[in-house]
What we know:
single chain; alpha/beta; 5-stranded parallel β-sheet; 12 helices; globular
Amino acid sequence: MPTLLIADDHPLFRAALRQAAADAVPDTAIREAGTLDDTLAALEAEPGIDLVLLDLHMPGNHGLAGLAAIRAQYPGTAVAVVSANDDPRVVRRALDHGAAGYLPKSSGLDELRDAIRAVLACEQWLPASLRVAVARTHSERGDADLASRLASLSPQQFRVLTLVAQGLLNKQIADRLDVQERTVKAHLSAIFDRLGVRNRTHAGVVLRELELSDPARRIED
Length: 221
C-alpha cells in the first residue's frame, strides 16, 4: 500500500489533493503536513513514505529549498511540486532539482488524479498545457551542478547547511541538533568541500539561490 504525504498549508487544497489521491489509488495511506518542518518531521517518523506533494511556498519553505532538502535527506521518496506558479522557468528548475512532477494549483481533479497515478508509477508528470513550454525552456546555468552538489550532502550535513543559511552560529547549531560543536565544524568542512565554497556566508548564499518569489504574495501586496 503506497503512502502519500500532502504538504500544503491551505486546508481546502489539501482536501482536494486528498480526494484526488483517494480516487486515483484507493488503497493509498494519506498523511498531511502544513509546514516544511512538519513535513520533514513526518518523513523522519515514517521514512517509507512513497510520495510527497509539496507546496513551494508553504511556511518554512522558500521556493526550491524544501524540494532540495527532501531529495537530499530522503532520496527514496518521490516529490511532486504543487504551486500556483506555472512559469515554465520555475517548472524547469523544479525538475532539474529532482521533482518527479509539477502540479499547478489551477489543475482540476481529473488532472490531479492523473498526476498522482503517474508519479506513483515512477513516471515524470507535467500538465499538457505546460509540456511544450517547459521542453523549450533551457535549464538555468549551474542548476544541475547545484542539485548534484546538494544531493551529495548527508541528511545531517543538509540540516547544518539549512541552519547556517538561517544565520545560526556553530554553538547554536550544535544545541539545535543535540551534537557537539566539533561535530558541527566537521560537517561544515565537508559542506564547504562538497559545495565548492570557502566559508559559511558563501554556503548560505548557495541555499538562498533556491528561493523563489510567491505569485500569491505578490497579488496580496
